[in-house]
Amino acid sequence: MEASVAKATALPLSRTARGRRLADRFATLFVRASGVGVIASILGILIFLLFAVWPLLRPPVVAEQAPIHVAGRTPVALAVDEHRTHVATLGLDGVVRIYAQDGNLVLEKPLLGPEEAPLLRAAAPSGDSTFVATSADGRIRIVPISWSVRFRGETREVEPALGDTVTLAPDPAGGALGASTARLDPDSGRAVAAAQLADGSIAIARRELERNLLSGEATETLSRSVLAPTPRLSALVVDRAERTLYGGTEDGHLLSWDLRQGEQAAPALVDAGGSGVSALELLIGDRSILVGQRDGRVSIWFPVGSDGPDAGPAALTRVRDVAPFSSEVRLIAPSSRNRSFLVQDASGELALYYATSGRQLWAGHSPAPDAAALAFSPRADGAYLADADRIDVLRIDNPHPEASLTSLFAPVWYEGYRKPSLVWQSSSGTDDFEPKLSLTPLLVGTLKGTFYSLFLAVPLAVLGAMYTSQLMHPRLQRFVKPTVELMASLPSVVLGFLAGLWLAPRVETAFTGLVLCAAAIPLCAILGGATWALLPGSLRTRLHAGTEVFWYAVLIAAGLWVCLSASPLLEAQFFGGSFPQWLLDTFGVRYDQRNAVVVGLAMGFAVIPIIFAISEDAFSNVPPHLTAGSLALGASLWQTVTRVVLPTASPGIFSAVMVGFGRAVGETMIVLMATGNTPIMDWSPFNGFRTLSANVAVEVPEAPAGGTLYRTLFLAALLLFALTFLVNTLAEVVRQRLRQRYARL
After folding, report:
1. Mean pLDDT across the stretch 116-124?
2. What is the pTM of this model?
3. How deeply is 183 buried, as exposed, middle or buried, from its count of CB atoms within 10 A (0-12, 13-18, 19+)?
């Protein structure tokens, strides 16, 4: 009977144990799978960011394609359409020929009549779809080329056509012209041609075209001016706006004329150094010029203004040199899409550069060593070189030439700047704008916002957690701790909204009182402790331990009210009635209403609950026998807290600070709404900044997918990822060492 009962009871027990083992195994596997899933997701994010960023630093690819045969008709000027379906050529025979990409001749038109003087030279100005032909009779012809695009279903067709030729005569007497250049605005019909005459003077011929809005008739006005003689020029180029004329001499000098001064324009002369100038071209925007010399040097120049109150006009300045060639520079072809350019020398070496950074992106041997013309396709995805019997074609895959470690993190000398600078400016209103994508101001702004927020949050949160855990009455603990933790539930967008629209104006009007509060609050706390100690012992024994916090709160609130109320009096007495104006007049520092102080207050308010909660747990988890032993040996409560509890809880406190650091680094909405969101390099608390996270939030909606800005934003996200990872790793190492150090207590 007893055996049967035991057997009956053992069966359910074994089933229960088996079920528990299964549940335990399932829970173990689930926890492991969850941990592996978290690690895998983090690695997946890292790999995705790396794949998105890698194209920024990938070297360009330059590959030869099938050439276009021109049957011995050597072109001396080339022009390419945007889609690289046709190439236009002009030879010294005075015939414009346009070939399709497959080599078929689709258009042929002579420029010269049977009795007209032959051509001396021809060129295709960079950025323009025109040919400029200089003839032996002192005339310059400008031939516009149009590339009409239409679609037949889903098939794109490009139809090339030649416009009306504009003829200008810098030398009406028909003398031979030296170095020459010309530009044509196809929209307005305005044209300009400049050339050096036999006596060394510079003749400028202009054509203005006015159209009657009612009848549509056009009235042509021709004008001519002559500038003072100069040394013999080897190259000449004029900008599209017809404001500045640049020239290079055979003895190695650069000249520039301000054409707005008319015939009174005097050339500004600078020494280019080295040998004579052999090639001269303008970069996109017409502010920077590329100078090639006979000794193989290539340099970038643009006007730079001087500092100081007596600053004169901007002077043409040699900004940087690129890797030199071994022989004379023959051809330079700048891109009309960005600041990259191609250079070929007399030995047939060809190289691709980026002007802003001065980097050599690619170098190799040209397929046409004796090329007479070099053209960069409008989209910077191809190059064309004219040889005696063919046009060699290169495919260029270089989508991010402006991105490099130097341009992303080091100072760069941009056009219009007086010195190298760290600048973030991703967009502008003009097509020739150069993006400035330095991440250093954003990284500095991230650290700046984090510093000012932790400067407020760490002392308040850690000391508040220590007081709450060790000194406050348990009844108050049950109220204070949940209240502080509830602060973490406030949406950051609400905090940013309040900080930007409500807090920032009040901080501006009461800044001196706010500074006074930093000294008044500790004094009020000390005063509270001193006055509490003066109370009779019989009265204090009737009160619960920790209730003195109410007395402290009253004194601190009174101190805050007095300091903020006294702010107008302090400004009137010591700062002339306005602290921001005094700051500007005295130190030249501008006070922005939305600045680092406002961010520190708002973001500190958001970080305090996180640091407080983790620190309070660290204090509360100190073994009770440590505090009891310290008190039993005669130490006071304050000595026990500061010399026993605080060191033992230091690993948890350090972790709390690091978690708060990560929270501050990744904060977006508060920074976005409470600062001017200006990416500047300044640690001053009186101006704004822009962080990496806020920059990603602002720029991503406007960044074209796959573009340089798009991938640079992913790089910013990767920096945030790496920064957080490194800080957390360092925090864990330090925490473990602190834990081992105080584990023996």
Report:
1. 89
2. 0.87
3. buried
